[in-house]
UniProtKB/TrEMBL annotation:
Transmembrane segments: none annotated. Mg(2+) binds at residues 43, 82, 114. Homodecamer; pentamer of dimers. GO terms for molecular function: 3-methyl-2-oxobutanoate hydroxymethyltransferase activity; magnesium ion binding; methyltransferase activity. InterPro entries: Pantoate_hydroxy_MeTrfase (IPR003700), Pyrv/PenolPyrv_kinase-like_dom (IPR015813), Pyrv_kinase-like_dom_sf (IPR040442). It catalyses: (6R)-5,10-methylene-5,6,7,8-tetrahydrofolate + 3-methyl-2-oxobutanoate + H2O = 2-dehydropantoate + (6S)-5,6,7,8-tetrahydrofolate. Keywords: Cytoplasm, Magnesium, Metal-binding, Methyltransferase, Pantothenate biosynthesis, Transferase. GO terms for biological process: methylation; pantothenate biosynthetic process. This is 3-methyl-2-oxobutanoate hydroxymethyltransferase. It is found in: Cytoplasm. Pfam families: Pantoate_transf (PF02548). Gene3D superfamilies: Phosphoenolpyruvate-binding domains. 3-methyl-2-oxobutanoate binds at residues 43-44, 82, 112.
């Protein structure tokens, strides 16, 4: 199991950190078996496994339900879980209460929060309470309606400088790592070099300390289009489609099930069930 200290040491020795999302028991088990360093129970689950068109409808209960299954599937892997939309903005009391539930009820090792300005003091409070916090800057999908769409962030001088300042601020308030989403590669490179904590990029280029992608994008599983920054390593849509089509066809044509997928019983018991009438048309 990685720790915030060992992740920082990986950064220091320039060993790339790998992170992938998982939302349930089988995906978590697969991620762990493939040797990822960290698993993210992302609120992207709202879009990729619950079918919402943004991450905004996702609740703390949704996150806990999926988070518990992920932790059961990946007991040896560092699991980070997203605090969902508005669960850390209402009041400090509400934030602490929900963060406590997320950690205690799932067994995850850390939580992740989007943004900087409004969450700087929150990161410090959670850290002081013993909850490791991962920050998330750049394209922050919970604010998609404020950002005006899923767009690359930090392209001009002012926006880039603001991102640099925010990255330093989340580190100063105790964040153990920073996820940087959809920012120009040169800006991500500069931020990663200025910070001591690992910067995990998604659409942030090759110079981050690690990379994170959404499980269903990597596998093209259930998703139709994937963001430009995602790399598709296999096409599960085709694999699943053809397997399910074959199942349907084989049942229709009576090719499935065969005796090898069935159970039988003693001949004499069957005969008794037919009242000894072995001439019955169904016998
Ligand atoms: N399947 C999936 N993968 C993700 O990476 C992901 C989600 N869902 N849901 C939550 C957020 C939303 N994310 C997204 C969604 C769309 C784009 C996107 O369409 N980006 C444009 C680039 C726009 C530009 O050029 O400014 C693209 O063409 O990829 C990016 C990030 C990342 N996260
Ligand atoms: C895209 C990653 C970083 C995320 O926050 C999520 O999957 O919810
Ligand atoms: Mg997220």
């Amino acid at each position: 199991m990685k720790t915030s200290t060992s992740l920082k040491e990986m950064k220091q020795r320039h060993e790339a950190i790998t992170m992938i999302t998982a939302y349930d028991y089988p995906s978590a088990k697969q991620a762990e078996n493939a040797g990822v360093d960290m698993i993210l129970v992302g609120d992207s689950l709202g879009m990729v496994v619950l079918g919402y068109d943004s991450t905004v409808p996702v609740t703390v209960d949704d996150m806990i339900h999926h988070g518990k299954a992920v932790v059961r599937g990946a007991k040896q892997t560092f699991v980070v879980i997203d605090m969902p939309f508005m669960s850390y903005h209402i009041s400090p009391e509400e934030t602490m209460k929900q963060a406590k539930r997320m950690i205690q009820e799932t067994g995850a090792q850390a939580i992740k929060v989007e943004g900087a300005k409004e969450v700087i003091t929150t990161i410090g409070k959670l850290t002081n309470a013993g909850i490791p916090v991962v920050a998330h800057l750049g394209l922050t999908p919970q604010s998609v309606q404020v950002l005006g769409g899923y767009r690359v962030q930090g392209k001009d001088k002012e926006a880039a400088q603001q991102l640099i300042d925010e990255a330093l601020a989340v580190q100063a308030s105790g964040a153990i790592s920073l996820v940087l989403e959809c920012v120009p590669a040169p800006l991500a490179k500069l931020i990663a070099s200025r910070l001591d904590i690992p910067v995990i990029g998604i659409g942030a280029g090759e110079h981050c300390d690690g990379q994170v992608l959404v499980y269903h994008d990597v596998l093209q599983y259930g998703v139709e289009r994937v963001p430009k920054f995602a790399k598709i390593y296999t096409n599960m849509n085709d694999v699943v489609h053809s397997a399910l089509q074959q199942f349907v066809a084989e049942v229709k044509t009576k090719q499935f099930p065969t005796p090898s997928h069935s159970f039988t019983m003693k001949e004499e018991v069957i005969s008794e069930l037919y009242g000894g009438n072995t001439n019955d048309e169904n016998y």
